[in-house]
Amino acid sequence: MDLGPNAPFIWTAYGMVAFVIAGLITWLVLDGREQQRRLADFEARGVKRRAGPEAGATSAEG
Amino acid sequence: MQSITQRLANPTQFMRLSARLLPWVAALAAAIIAYGLYLAFFVAPPDYLHGEIARIMFIHVPSAWMAMACYALIAVSAFGLLVFRHPLADVSAKAAAPIGAAFTFLALFTGSLWGKPAWGTYWVWDARLTSVLILFFLYLGLIALRSSIEDETLASKLTAILALVGIVMLPIIKFSVDWGNTLHQPSSVLKLGGPTIHSSILTPLLVMGAGFLVLFIAMHLKAMRNEILRRRVKALQLAEVARVQAGQVTAAAE
Question: What is the pTM of this model?
Answer without folding.
Answer: 0.89
